[in-house]
Design a protein that fits this description.
Layout (H helix, E strand, L loop, with lengths): L11 E4 L7 E2 L12 E6 L1 E3 L5 E3 L3 E3 L8 E8 L5 E7 L2 E6 L6 E4 L15 E5 L2 E5 L6 E3 L4 E3 L19 E5 L2 E5 L7 E4 L14 E4 L1 H4 L4 E7 L2 E6 L2 E6 L8 E7 L9 E4 L2 E6 L2 E4 H6 L14 H10 L6 E5 L4 E6 L4 E6 L3 H4 L3 E6 L6 E4 L5 E4 L4 E4 L4 E6 L7 H6 L3 E3 L2 E8 L1 E7 L9 E14 L4 E8 L2 E11 L27 E12 L2 E9 L4 E15 L1
Parallel strand pairs: 2-3
Antiparallel strand pairs: 1-42, 3-36, 4-5, 5-42, 6-32, 7-8, 8-9, 9-10, 11-12, 12-13, 13-14, 15-16, 16-17, 17-18, 19-20, 20-21, 21-22, 23-24, 24-25, 26-27, 27-28, 28-29, 30-31, 31-32, 33-35, 34-35, 36-41, 37-40, 37-42, 38-39, 38-41
Length: 552
């Protein structure tokens, strides 16, 4: 019974403005972080307005083969059209996008080809030809018609003093091919004659012997920026200027103590090179400006310990980074840990750091390739996928059940040549967790009566909110609610629509959900898991309705 004369304490709304907008931070003490930081951000991205949202789906788009797709490259032909090739097992495959599902066609080699034992190629475009290198293999070359081992080319000239030319990394720039990581000379960079990538002796070819520059380090990767040749070692970075005339190029800088953690972790973002060192993600431009000494160029400082532990234990030949310009993100794949780290570079120039999240999988992608047309191809354990829509999609051959075209298509499957393909849409979740929040008053207990969560999209999905109190990470209070956001009717894409088969989803408007919470604490932590079931969703705003509790 309420005592007479006792005033009722008002309900005070606390708006968590910009909740999670700075991304993941597992490095700092979470009791000291503000609401802009997240302490978990799984399958999370930030939408174009900087709001917490879900990643897109991993959509299988090709038929399966018997090997893992470990590399995908884009061949830019002489007429500027593009073809895509993948390395898997003991073969190289062409991705044929003219059929549905896409097919992967094994490529035949002319000459006397080597035995390929791995698909871990680095793909390079140079002089209208396509080149592939990987450790313990001869260089391969595709002229647009025929595949050859480089040694089988009629104009091949072997480098002097090398028995087996097996570079692990390459660069096509400054009018020639550059190679590094040769087993017999790991600290030497070889460069070809002008416009003849296979001519490695005579003419204008030559070598850059780094023995006197960095000691016993070895070449891991090669890059270029502003007429500079960048040579990445395991422990050092060497920069030469005037690389268009290598016989007269000048040593510009040696950055000691910082190296490249894996050949495939170099990304070109705007006018910078972003690379993965053993200490985390770095900007080459800022590393040079600060001579490698300032933490400002450590772009992953917010997750440093987590990331360095992963790098220390991972097989770095499997760790690969891909820049996806459509969304402005670098995705670094750690398939051995079934996760990716995602670095959102959109606000990098203004905030000096990317926003970081993670993606997790039951079967992780092994590699990726962001294309100029806005596609992110992903290499899976047996096929190629695209980063699109909002289902994780798998394909299966169901011809045994649906044996002809009419029966197949009547079951909403796809008939291609003589095969019926079924597409299975799999839901997934995205989860975020806040730091410990004192709601602007650390000395007074707060009675959190309810939360107001405003979502865009997510129609038909379930979201569950967890609330923890007073640094107790066990036994949270949880409450589930359904996202019932409604949008306009499908104009194109439903069976009962006016036009065609389903490809377009309906837009949605924002809707606020009031969720009773009923927890009391001086500090609280929020965690939310939201289902992704074919629809985009993002968290627009979070407001907590609180009453004042006891003063500590």
């Amino acid at each position: 019974m309420k005592r007479l004369g006792m005033p009722t304490k008002p309900i005070t709304p606390v708006v968590l403005s910009g909740l999670g907008s700075a991304g993941l931070n597992t490095q700092s003490q979470d009791a000291t972080l503000g609401p802009e930081w997240l302490t978990a951000a799984d399958n999370v991205v930030f939408d174009y307005q900087g709001r917490i949202s879900s990643r897109k789906g991993i959509k299988q788009v090709s038929k399966t083969i018997g090997s893992s797709i470990k590399s995908i490259g884009c061949y830019i032909k002489a007429d500027r059209t593009r073809e895509y090739y993948a390395g898997a097992g003991n073969a190289i495959y062409k991705l044929d996008t003219t059929v549905t599902p896409y097919s992967l066609t094994s490529q035949a080699f002319s000459g006397t080809p080597q035995t390929i034992i791995n698909g871990n190629w680095q793909w390079v475009n140079f002089n209208d030809e396509f080149w592939g290198v990987q450790s313990s293999h001869k260089v391969v070359n595709f002229d647009g018609t025929n595949w050859y081992d480089m040694e089988d080319l009629g104009t091949y000239l072997a480098p002097v003093g090398i028995t087996t030319f097996d570079p692990s990394c390459a660069l096509g720039d400054f009018g020639r091919m550059w190679y590094g990581g040769v087993t017999e000379a790991p600290g030497v960079v070889f460069y070809s004659d002008n416009l003849i990538g296979e001519a490695l002796s005579g003419g204008a070819s030559g070598i850059v012997d780094l023995k006197t520059v960095w000691g016993n380090d070895e070449v891991v990767g090669l890059g270029s920026i502003e007429n500079k040749l960048i040579i990445f070692g395991k422990q050092n970075i060497v920069i030469y200027t005037g690389a268009d005339d290598p016989a007269n190029m000048v040593l510009d800088e040696v950055i000691k103590g910082i190296g490249l953690a894996g050949r495939d972790n170099i990304s070109y973002v705007n006018t910078d090179i972003i690379f993965m060192s053993y200490e985390g993600l770095r900007s080459l431009t800022r590393t040079v400006q600060n001579d490698g000494k300032s933490p400002i160029d450590d772009l992953s400082l917010a997750i440093r310990n987590d990331l360095t532990r992963l790098l220390a234990s991972a097989d770095l030949t499997t760790v690969k980074s891909s820049y996806y310009p459509e969304d402005g993100i670098i995705v670094t794949f750690f398939p051995g840990s079934l996760k990716c780290y995602v670095f959102d570079m959109i606000l990098f120039a203004s905030q000096n750091r990317p926003r970081i999240t993670t993606w997790s999988f039951t079967s992780a992608p092994l590699c990726g390739l962001g294309t100029i047309d806005g596609t992110l191809y992903l290499g899976l354990s047996d096929s190629v996928a695209e980063y699109s829509d909002y289902y994780d999609v798998t394909i299966s051959d169901v011809t045994g059940t649906y044996g002809n075209q009419s029966v197949c298509e009547a079951a909403n499957n796809t008939w291609e040549t003589s095969t019926c393909w079924s597409y299975t849409n799999n839901n997934y979740n995205y989860t975020w967790q806040s730091a410990w929040l004192d709601l602007n008053n650390p000395v007074i207990a707060k009675i959190v009566k309810a939360g107001l969560f405003t979502f865009v999209g997510g129609r038909g999905a379930t979201s569950e909110i967890f609330i923890y109190k007073d640094y107790d990470s066990g036994s949270p209070y949880s409450k589930s609610f359904s996202l019932t956001t409604q949008g306009t009717t499908y104009l194109y894409g439903k069976l009962n629509s006016l036009y065609g088969a389903a490809i377009y989803a309906s837009p949605s408007t924002a809707k606020e959900y009031k969720v009773p919470l009923g927890r009391t604490g001086r500090v609280i932590r929020l965690k939310m898991t939201t289902e992704v079931n074919g629809n985009y969703s993002s968290l627009v705003n979070t407001t907590l309705l609180t009453k004042q509790g006891k003063i500590r």
